[in-house]
Specification:
Elements: E1 2-7, H1 13-21, E2 25-30, E3 35-37, E4 42-44, H2 47-55, E5 59-60, H3 68-75, E6 81-85, H4 93-96, E7 103-107, E8 115-116, H5 119-125, E9 130-137, E10 147-154, H6 161-185, E11 200-201, H7 217-226, E12 233-237, E13 240-250, E14 264-267, E15 272-275, E16 280-288, E17 294-295, H8 296-302
Parallel strand pairs: 1-2, 1-6, 2-5, 6-7, 8-11
Antiparallel strand pairs: 3-4, 7-9, 9-10, 12-13, 13-16, 14-15, 15-16, 16-17
Length: 312
């Protein structure tokens, strides 16, 4: 098939490469504009742009994909289908209806659940037992299009937002290639989403990572995993940011009943136990502001965290 591919982050790269490996003719890649990063304000390409350059594919980076000049440029490519994977802009009707097979989207959730910008992180934060990828025919609404195919995976006990991201990127790539075969052969069957089961999730913000120890240990532990590696969960220790990278839920620790939320109730050679609204979290891996990420055993060699210390 003749394809225009729209995508921006790492998640979209496996899909682009899989389409290329499958022998499809990728006419162009459309991605978000370059950004200036760091103190030196160096130009930073999107992961999809970097992949496209490696594959020798033309790259377009419109500030607004719906501008008439760019829409006409796309139309002139005469693509059979537009594939979208985490592109980052809303597509107008003129683009959605441009090609023979329309626009097909790779979405990292089991639609209609978790429509929106950050389905991967929220699946972990909310304690879902399974997630997956949906290949859908795009419509004008936010992730409301008809479902063409779905692939489920189970979340592991220590699943993080990052590990699930990597898994679903690969699942989405293989499912996309399989689905396009059915689409081209006329064997694909689209199913309308059940609006009664639809849920929406918003973008992840850094402020969401602040740990509230008045919440239950299980909820905090899921937040830690869901926000790893970005933006990460954190609290304050001696007025410095302390990122928590890994922790376990502990039902009860001796002496915890008299402690306040966020209070260290026990310290061993390998973990720091902190009281929550229900149970405690045992911190296994952490990172103090300005320092490297390390396991708690290494951290405690340099810092004495006594019982009664308050994490805020």
């Amino acid at each position: 098939m003749k394809i225009v591919f729209m995508g921006t982050p790492d998640f979209a790269v496996p899909s682009l490469k899989a389409l290329h490996s499958a022998g499809h003719e990728i006419l162009a890649v459309v991605t978000q504009p370059d950004k200036m990063k760091g103190r030196g304000k160096k130009v930073s390409f999107t992961p999809v742009k970097e992949a496209a350059i490696e594959l020798g594919i033309d790259v377009y980076q419109p500030k607004k994909v719906g501008e008439e000049e760019f829409v006409n440029k796309l139309r002139g490519l005469n693509a059979d289908v537009i594939i979208v994977a985490a592109f980052g802009q809303i597509l107008p009707k003129s683009i959605l209806e441009m090609c023979k097979y329309g626009c097909i989207n790779v979405h990292a959730s089991l639609l209609p659940k978790y429509r929106g910008a950050a389905p991967i992180q929220w699946a972990v934060i909310n304690g879902e037992e399974k997630s997956g990828v949906t290949i859908m025919q795009m419509g004008e609404g936010l992730d409301t299009g008809d479902i063409i195919s779905v692939k489920e995976i189970e979340l592991q006990k220590k699943e993080t937002g990052g590990s699930l991201f990597d898994k679903l990127a690969q699942v989405g790539a293989s499912l996309l290639v399989e689905t396009l075969v059915d689409v081209e052969n006329g064997n694909a069957k689209a199913t309308v989403q059940n609006e009664d089961e639809a849920t929406y999730v918003g973008m992840i913000k850094k402020s969401m990572g602040e740990i509230d120890f008045s919440k239950e240990a299980e909820e905090i532990e899921r937040l830690v995993r869901g926000l790893s590696p970005w933006p990460s969960a954190f609290c304050k220790y001696n007025d410095k940011i302390l990122k928590i990278w890994d922790c376990d839920v502990v039902d009860n620790v001796e002496g915890m009943s008299d402690a306040v939320y966020g209070e260290v109730v026990k310290t061993t050679k390998t973990a720091i136990y902190v009281k929550t609204a229900k149970g405690a979290i045992a911190i296994n891996e952490l990172q103090l502001e300005g320092k490297k990420r390390m396991d708690t055993a290494s951290f405690l060699l340099g810092y004495k965290v006594e019982k009664g210390t308050i994490f805020k």
